[in-house]
Amino acid sequence: GNLVRPKGVTVDSDGNVYVVESYYDNLLVFSPRGEFLLPIGGTGTAPSPLQYFFLSIGFCMLTQVHRNADAMGIEMAGATAKITGRLGRTGSIEDGTASNGVTGVEIEVDIDTSADPDTVRELVRRSEAMCYVAQTVRNPVDTVLSASLKGQKLD
Prior knowledge:
The chain is α+β, with helices and mostly antiparallel strands. It has three helices and eight strands; from the N terminus they run ββββαββααββ.
């Protein structure tokens, strides 16, 4: 079938393709050959935007672990990442003072390999250094927000 309003795409280290499809509020998973594997979520059941945010850290880290393992000549049987986020909220929606934020992130990477611990530490160090998402969380960048109303930019 056709995708309706796809909003984002990522690929894992095995080549599986993940498509965020906004019309049905779900995540679609395809094989490296483009075969549909499964939907995750659905209208009213899709992961929250925060879950997608934390998933992006895991996808990025695992992509870089596999990329760096290849470059370093490390044979791996597999790798997993567990991402834990701590959230904070202040203020009130009713009076317009609400503010949400991530107060901390823990990234746990488990690598199945016969490589020695020092080599695995270096693999993880290099992988985190190359993960755009982890680096953006670790080293926040200036962000510019603009808004428009019916195509007219608001000041």
